[in-house]
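question for whoever is on the cluster today: can someone run the full assembly for these? two chains, 683 residues total. i dont have access anymore since they changed the login thing
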Amino acid sequence: MTTPPTLNDVLANSSLIVTCGPGGVGKTTTAAALAIAAARMGRRVVVVTVDPARRLADALGLDMESRAHEPHQVHEVTEGPGSLSALMLDAETTFDRLITERAGDPERAAAVLANPVYRSLAGSLGGAQEYMAIERLHQLHSSGAYDLVVIDTPPSRHAIDLLEAPDRLVTFLSHPIYRVLTLPSRSFAKVTNAGSSAFLWLVRKLAGPKIVEDTIEFFRSLATMEEGLRTRAAEVSVLLRDKQTAFILVSSPRAEAIAESTHLVNALRDGGFRLGGVVVNLVHPLPPPAEAFFNLAPGPLADHVAYHAELFALATSERSEMAELMALAKGAAEAELPLLDGDIHDVAGLTELAEMLVNP
Amino acid sequence: MDPGALRSLTPTWVGNASVTVVAGKGGVGSSTVAAALALVAARQGADVLLVAVDGRPGLGPLLGGKPIGPDERVLRAFNRKGRIRGRTIPPAQAFSDYLELKGISGLLRKAASAASLDVIAAATPGLEHLLVLGKIKELDREKVADLIIVDAPPAGLAAPFLRSASALQAVVASGPIRTQADEVAAMLADPRRCQGLLVTLAEETPVNEVVELAYDLEEKIGLTLGPLVVNACWPDRPGLHMSPTAAARAQGVKLSRAAKAALDVSGEFGRKRLEGQSLQLNRLSELLPLSRVILPRVPTARFGPAELDLLADALSVEPVAAR
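^ ran it for u. tokens below:
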């Protein structure tokens, strides 16, 4: 019988770790703690966070807007050979960079970047943030500057949007409407003049002529970048399924979170992604059972007894929810983190959490 | 229920508007609160439509019915015509309903389906959210229910969802989409038609986030906010501030060694939680001038209809006025 791997093994052997899970479970904090644990093992680590809570951002030195979007070293993490860098994901900036890289010449890039449709698209296109998360991880992973990239995924209802993002982009680019919109200008003009593009007619009718012009221009500038975008999407798709890539699911022990996590475990398996570990965060402590007190009058001891009963019931119920998830995630490393008294706001707090993850 | 009887609901804030949007960040229990609110109104005879924007699968069973889908279904019925119906609004369906409503047919309708909403939505950001809100606005205009309760998308999506109309107003200058955006924005800003019910926990990050969300919604879209719902609060137990040994002595009871060990663990944890909780409740009073309703922490990780009844009871109490 082989023993299941520990989080130590996963942190030591992966070059890319993707944390995923339902919203509100402390995913970003856990990602940062995992990154610190790996740095303390001597690895050069970069952690990419999405929308961190203010105090966590402070802890990682991401409080300065100006430098938050580029990797910078987090100090006082380790005295060993390892290191930790952190950055905050900004979908818009990453999208801009992608366009600039792929556009070929600066003038074309400038035209796209100034386009109003692009401007609103970059921040809000369905899946744009997810796509940009993986675009960024590709850049960092291939830069050679890090042994391990830890990336936190955007909070997402079904949490699989990220995994589908590269494929969705390719689907988007292959759409017949997109084909029409990216025809060379002369035949394109003919299409629109002839009014045979019902799509544009519809958009014009619904949203007015200005947005049609902007849309056409945007899609046409994008056309020259299509090949590059496709290649990148395919590369990322392969990278996410690499044997050195591990997904770490972060959940809370509440039934709704467990239900979403269960869904996610299945989606990962179906998609051919490797689930390296499961971390259940925000777990209430289970006190030892107490004997019954009969005919206890109201008073301070009655408060203690009532509270004990509630905490015991809650903690027991959480453990039974967790058992279901752990059974499904068999073969992945497991860890549990307690519900803490307050938010983590410094490297010392994250380091404590890191210790709990690797030395359960 | 008689017309205007929305006004007779208690507590009064429940009937202040015909649409109540329940919103909060992920993990604070806003869907559960939306279901509990539906229960509060329907128990008093109101005909309630619960719209789960993101289609949270467990919401129907929580109310004792089947899972909620795009087809409206009755989840629970009460005396005096009170009932809760539930449905989701998939953007694609809202789009097709919208085209029908606008009398767009034939070639254009075909174009719309061929192009698929994805591509059109890409050209018009925020459109999917707007279509869903637009559908809610239509349902309200048609008076399909006494009260429409909207379970807004969770995590970081509540604000973009509610801001979609004003965002589109900035991009689209004319045409039916602009009209739709204007009408939705008008509904959101009209206190008789729409109110927001924000849900949070008495913990540091949820408090910070709800404060930000509240100001964002009030300033940017003019949404009137109902009381703030603080979910999952431990009841105050002053005895926890004493050690179990001292508490036992005070009540003339001698603790066994096992009981002392058990109560030491729970008492220590409980005291810290209560201290943290009161700290965060104080911060909320300082930061947000909203009246508030405190919901108890129900001691289970899995909610069922019985637990939901408890929450509905707690939600039925008049809110505590802001300091």
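summary bc i know u wont read the tokens: The two ends of chain B are 35 Å apart (CA to CA). Chain B touches chain A through 82 residues (CB under 8 Å).
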